[in-house]
Specification:
- The protein is mostly helical and 187 residues long.
- The chain is built from 5 helices and no strands.
Length: 187
């Protein structure tokens, strides 16, 4: 017993007991103490459920109109009558286009019926000649670019061949020198 008691730490035991008692006192006072309060039940008027409740912090200057936060999204100082008229015109135009038969082949047929055969042939010949000219111009530009590329490639090829021949010449010369040295050593 004399060996156990000196090892036992009374300060930590004291702190633990005091903490436990403080927590127990706090729980007891909170749960059991206080005044005898009961929940207040507000009677709601069936005809006007919002009577007696404060829902607005301030009285709005303008009545709610819809939009963001139940107010108009447009500044009341701006005149939007022109914009609304244009929007109405565009809506009506769109509705008319949807109601119409928008077959593109009928439109082309109507345009062709308005022109006579000579005018159509003339338009076709103009289109063909313009297309042929554009194609010829494109081919000429492509040929010119191809010739330029071929010229550059030939020039770089000749430079590469010259460089390769020079390297080959040096290697052959070095190998002949090595061969002469090895024959001298052997003789």
């Amino acid at each position: 017993m004399k060996t156990i008691l000196p090892r036992f730490d009374f300060k930590s035991l004291y702190k633990t007991v005091v903490t436990f008692l403080a927590v127990a006192l706090l729980v007891t006072v909170t749960a059991c103490g206080g005044s005898n309060q009961t929940a207040k039940i507000e009677k709601v008027d069936v005809d006007n459920p919002s009577a007696g409740k404060l829902t607005e912090l301030y009285k709005p200057l303008t009545p709610p109109q819809g939009g963001m936060n139940n107010y108009s999204d447009v500044d009341p100082r701006v005149d939007i009558s022109k914009v609304e008229a244009k929007a109405d015109r565009l809506i009506k135009k769109t509705d008319d286009l949807v109601k119409k038969d928008t077959n593109p082949f009928k439109e082309i047929g109507k345009q062709l019926d308005k022109k006579g055969l000579p005018e159509r042939a003339e338009d076709l010949s103009k289109d063909v000649s313009r297309s042929a000219k554009e194609t010829a111009d494109g081919v000429a530009k492509g040929t010119e670019r191809g010739f330029g590329n071929l010229k550059e490639n030939t020039k770089s090829f000749t430079e590469d061949v010259k460089s390769a021949v020079g390297d080959l010449k040096e290697k052959v010369q070095q190998q002949t020198e090595d061969l002469e040295r090895s024959t001298r050593k052997n003789s």
